[in-house]
Amino acid sequence: MIDTASTPQSPPLWPSIGALLIAGWTGGFVGSLLWSPLLGAHAAGSLFGSPGGLAAAALAPALAGALVASAVLPRILQAFCECELGLGAAFVVTLGSSLAALAVTPLVWALFLARGTAIVPGSAMFFVLPQIVSLTVGYQLLKRLAQPVRGARPEGSAPIWPRGERSATSLPATEWNQLLADVRAEVAQILAILARAEPKDVPAWVAEALTGLEALADRVEEALPPDSSARDPQRALAAGIRRLQGALVDLSESAWRGDHRLELPRLRGLDEIEHALAQLESLQSG
């Protein structure tokens, strides 16, 4: 009865079921503790004496349990599967689950009575079927209301350093050296092209260069250097590339005013890139 196929944005099935179970059991237990003192023998007799009182006696514990469960569910769900749920949405999920279980219980009684089967209050059917229906409704609501935690790494994606945990294998020295060479070659090629470009052509060349630098900065940030001592200059190298991108944007906007070639050696980010590359290459040679 529970749909096991989830969209990429949907919370995974079994962690969600576990979160719903724990939250539901907690809400049911605490809800019972909250309502038991209010329903003494005299009060219980007056409640069960009228249809409205009977409905109130059934719905009040469900509402109290849903309130408690809605406070617990977001924390458990985030711990189990890195999905977040607002308190309002959590209340909708838990109340919907409780009402679904409450609604199916009379159907179970009617089924037993229709077949002439002796009704045993402790029968597993009176617990299992409402629980299955409750979990089914709860999970369907979660699929629509829960969202991945902002900033959480998607399942199956490669770890990113330094933001993520350093769990992947470091690059071999040859690949790391090739990455540094690519940075130096890319920057030199951009400067050479802009040095030959006419002022009217600078914006087009800069737009193309920005795309290449963006990909290069991403490669530098995501790479895992062979030596952990390279972390600081690696960050500096990526930051230098980002600064160079900003300097090129400014250059493209002002190229028509004069000779842009005079600005090329003084572009922001070039000194940072050169200094970081020198440090990283020194670490590799050492």
Structure write-up:
By secondary structure, the chain is mainly α. The protein has 2 domains: 13-148; 173-285. The chain contains 9 helices and 2 strands. It has a two-stranded antiparallel sheet with strand order 1-2.
Structural class: mainly alpha
Strand arrangement across the biggest beta sheet = 1-2
Largest sheet: 2 strands, antiparallel
Give the number of domains. 2
The pLDDT mean sits at 74
Topology as H/E string?
Answer: HHHEHHEHHHH
Principal-axis shape equals: elongated
Q: How many helices does DSSP assign?
A: 9
- Helical amount: 55-70%
Global Rg:
32 Å
Looking at this protein, list some descriptive labels:
286 residues; 2 domains; two-stranded antiparallel sheet
How would you concisely characterize the structure shown here?
The chain has 286 residues and is mainly α. 69% of the residues lie in helices and 1% in strands. The chain has two domains: 13-148; 173-285.
